[in-house]
């Protein structure tokens, strides 16, 4: 299964996916209503019980009908979907379609687009996998995972817009950067929340890159102290929960304070991302 799907499923199974009910608890949204109907948006509702999700599963080319409305939990629906056979001539008889359906429901809004995207993504992923040849197969040396990676994150926050630019980079022990990223984020209530979001995004990216031994650095002493349990800030309670959950993925992980002068690159990327932020029209 593709790493991005593993991460999405990990978030779902650990109730870390930002659905309506979770966003209301974190005081990010005033209402938990599903964007497709008026029901509260839980993980079970979004992926199975919502009328939109029911239509998606009904139109999915499975042998037998998967009645999404009768699914009592996400785990049960997930097992049923994994056990369902994909009909020909889709060309995925030996590949699970369920993860791609879940990802498409999460990322798309159009019914036919959801199913088409899932099938195309699944076939594209399948075609990139190495073909197993039992005879005359040359032994391959597995690529060792990167070790002792340092990830530095930073954020730029603008109070008037309640928006933030988030940035993070990955470096090896020789301090040579091999990856950098930046994004913008809306509805950010404080600079501390922005720093926490940057750290969480960096951890998600590290998982996507399959890095297993990482030291995460931030110039926010409050954030590092909160992660280590030395202090508590209610405004980042949900973010800290996500960080602790994500930590379980790594073989070795640590968090430490980094002086601002060592985050010049990350600070510049965060500020550049914030300058490109475009508020949604009211």
Automatic annotation (TrEMBL):
CDD domains: RNase_H_like
The Reverse transcriptase zinc-binding domain, residue ranges: 2-57
GO MF entries: nucleic acid binding; RNA-DNA hybrid ribonuclease activity
Span of domain RNase H type-1: 153-273
Domain of life assignment: Eukaryota
InterPro entries from the UniProt entry: RNase_H-like_dom_plant, RNase_H-like_EbsB-rel, RNaseH-like_sf, RNaseH_domain, RNaseH_sf, RVT-Znf
Pfam families per UniProt: RVT_3 (PF13456), zf-RVT (PF13966)
PANTHER family linked: BNAC02G40300D PROTEIN, REVERSE TRANSCRIPTASE-LIKE PROTEIN
Name of the protein this chain belongs to: Reverse transcriptase zinc-binding domain-containing protein
């Amino acid at each position: 299964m593709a790493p991005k799907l593993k991460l999405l499923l990990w978030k779902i199974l650990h109730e870390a996916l930002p659905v309506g009910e979770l966003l209301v608890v974190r005081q990010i949204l005033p209402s938990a209503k599903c964007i497709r109907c008026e029901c509260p948006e839980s993980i079970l509702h979004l992926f199975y019980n919502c009328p939109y999700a029911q239509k998606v599963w009904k139109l999915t080319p499975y042998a037998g009908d998967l009645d999404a409305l009768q699914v009592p939990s996400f785990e049960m629906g997930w097992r049923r979907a994994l056990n369902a056979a994909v009909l020909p001539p889709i060309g995925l008889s030996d590949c699970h379609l369920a993860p791609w359906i879940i990802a498409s429901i999460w990322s798309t809004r159009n019914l036919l687009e959801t199913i088409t995207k899932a099938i195309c993504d699944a076939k594209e992923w399948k075609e990139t996998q190495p073909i197993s040849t039992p005879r005359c197969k040359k032994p391959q040396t597995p690529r060792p995972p990167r070790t002792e990676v340092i990830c530095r994150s930073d954020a730029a926050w603008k109070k008037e817009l309640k928006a933030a630019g988030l940035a993070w980079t990955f470096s090896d022990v020789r301090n040579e950067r091999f990856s950098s990223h930046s994004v913008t984020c809306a509805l950010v209530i404080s600079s501390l929340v922005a720093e926490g979001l940057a750290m969480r995004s960096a951890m998600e990216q590290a998982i996507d890159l399959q890095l297993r031994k990482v030291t995460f650095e931030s110039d926010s002493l409050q954030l590092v102290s909160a992660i280590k349990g030395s202090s508590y800030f209610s405004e980042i309670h949900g973010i800290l929960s996500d960080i602790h959950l994500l930590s379980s993925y790594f073989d070795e992980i640590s968090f430490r304070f980094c002086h601002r002068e060592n985050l010049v690159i990350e600070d510049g990327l965060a500020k550049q991302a914030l300058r490109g932020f475009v508020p949604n029209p009211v």
